[in-house]
Amino acid sequence: MKKYLLTAIVMLISAAAFAQQSSSSSVVRRRGADDRNSAKSATGVTQRMQAHYEDRATSDSEMQWMRVMYRQLDLKKDENAALYYPDEPVEDQENLFRIIMRHMASGNLTGYEYLDGREVFSDNYKVKMADVLDRFHILHTQAKGSTEKNPRFTIEDADVPASEVLSYYIIERWEFDKRSNRMRTRIEALCPVLHRDGDFGAEAIRYPMFWVRYADLRPYLSTQNIFTNDDNNLATCTYDDYFQLGLYKGEIYKTRNLKNKSLMQLYPDPDALAHAQDSIQRRLETFEDKLWVPSLEELAARREAAEKAELAAAGQNSAATDAAASEAPKKKSSVRSSRSKRGSSEASKKSKPAKVKKAKAPKSSSSSSAVRSVRNRKR
């Protein structure tokens, strides 16, 4: 009996010890997870969020067609104003350049060298944040926890040149995915462009700073709400929504080509350059529609649009012919009036009386009058 009691006591003690050990390990695990979440909450992006916004690159075998576009976004245009304003942080809102600089200074974001015409996003072309700050004369200090291997910097809000970044370069990829048979537009990278006045009041000089991969920047853009419409002051859109929906507006300044030349180099004439930009944009927008056989509704809509265009062209032609016809009688009447004036002047000339020659007095004969003698005058 005593043996059974001792065995039961030992089993109870071992079970209690095992339960205490498991509870302590669970506490340790929870603390470790809390520490990771607290570390990520400082940047506002968790590991789960990063995995959610991770954009897997589409392989060439999955694509049927692809074209790369380079655009310039002018922040002075109304469509791109959401990227510039507010130029200073207001109520936890900041513009795109401040977000980029803050995360690059803290070591959460990587920048790559801006190469003239060549973009390489590899470790060999990563930029050092200290070199960027010194190159563009941005005041900064060493942040807490900064090391030689992982440097971190603190930049005051007044020292960030957000008001001088007046444009961006972006790289677009227009891809036709043969798995889904859909066309999609994907942004590959962004480059802030610094505009600084030249010497002696010359035109502002543009300084492309660095490239940032959009896939690395996207998790941070999804946490910043903005409003893009003056009629609705609610911030119902994020920076990521702004780019994914294509709410920006930019001119195409280059397409990826074998010669690696910009459109300005290929088309020096301004009119030819504008025509090339419009034709490229039109081909991109209509590429997907031309792949499929149109439905009956689409054919009817196209036919109706063509008829309207023909009627409009016919109306313009008839208006032009009417205007030409109205001008023609005026010219004929003017010719007739000039002819009538000329004829009346000739008739008036003809109606004038002819000059009558005066008749000379007849010579007098010797018998009719006496002739004085010279001899009598001498007397």
From TrEMBL:
InterPro entries: Gliding_motility_assoc_GldN. Residues 1-19 form the signal peptide. It holds the Pfam family GldN. Keywords: Signal. Residues 331-342, 350-361 have a biased composition (Basic residues). NCBIfam families: GldN. It comes from the Bacteria. This is Gliding motility protein GldN. Residues 39-49 have a biased composition (Polar residues). Residues 312-327, 362-371 have a biased composition (Low complexity). The keyword Cell membrane does not apply. Residues 26-56, 312-379 are annotated as: Disordered.
